[in-house]
Amino acid sequence: MKKSRGGSFGAMAVDAKSDLPSYCPSASNAARRQFLKSLGALGAGAILPGGIALLAQADAHAAAATLSRIDVHHHHLSPYYKKISGPTRLTQRSDPALSNWTPAIAVEQMDQAGIATAMLSIATGGIPANLAGEQERTLVRDSNDYGAQMVRDYPGRFGLFASLPMLDVDASLKEIEYAFTTLKTDGIALMTDYGDVWPGDPMFALVFEELNRRKAVVFIHPTTPSCCAKLLPNVPASWVEYDFDTTRAVTSLLVNGTLTRCPDVRFIITHSGGTVPVLAKRVADMFPPQMAAGAPGGVEAELKKLYYDIANGANPSSLAALTQLVPMSQLLFGTDFPFVKMSITVDGFREHGFSARDVQGINNGNALRLFPRLRK
Ligand SMILES: [Zn+2]
Fold this sequence. Notes:
Layout: H1 24-42, H2 50-64, E1 69-75, H3 79-85, H4 103-112, E2 115-121, H5 133-153, E3 158-163, H6 169-181, E4 187-191, H7 205-213, E5 217-221, H8 237-255, H9 258-261, E6 266-269, H10 276-286, H11 299-305, E7 307-309, H12 316-325, E8 331-332, H13 342-351, H14 356-370
Parallel strand pairs: 1-2, 2-3, 3-4, 4-5, 5-6, 6-7, 7-8
Bound molecules: zinc ion.
């Protein structure tokens, strides 16, 4: 199987034009064109000092194209998953690569987007709601083994977030042991709900206790609760329901005190937090005093500790809300490939106007705190 070279997370080159993959010149040039356009609009007087900041941003994005990004939101599609789930529905925002996805195509796309390492998780649909018992455990194990094989086949290019059969707590505890001990997983991928049971439910207390003991990174991916799958005809769940269920999951962890009881779990919330940042103050204002033990430092303080990927959420309004709520140290790069074209996040991220320092933090600096094994 073809192997691909790993990326580098050392000190970023200020100008890495000499060793760019085929995608990079266009990414680099686009950033520079944007910079020059900005200068033209502002006039020559803008060259100092604001122009220098713009140049630094352009160079930070260009340097990112040298395989330095860590994509924390990236899916694999094992043959068994495709067989169990049936045909994967293509959407307008899906990458064309989805229909004929292979690990090699994923690596090719990563090279073009400057992604050194992608953390793999089960396909967007997660574990189909109609699966339970042995079938569910088999799918989870297959998915975890498949992801671990990709990690081995492409050294340095992938990491793994292992899934759990959450409704079976004993089996989940066994899978945690297997995933960390045998597969050397980088973290755990949970869904925002399991059959209308959200992660803060007391039935999951033992699972989170174990994840806290292991100081696990826990990636929480949206899904559609069965209660709300078909509320709006002709509106796919991924348009709005995923973001709402993300907010339900976070609120569930909050009101049940999981965030406080498990301070060593590093949670990653997807898509710039869904509707969490917009509703944070509202939830804080209405948080019942009798639940204060669940958030002794206040609701917003708990939400500021979480990490948030910007996959398919790198747009002005989502990022404005997110960066109002949390420090820049909590933002992570993600793409949601192959269910969303990488360019949607890459372009939105580049155009947002983050400082060079923040670009570097989002590209890999913040993620390296979670995954020190990726440090060179
Ligand atoms: Zn996803």
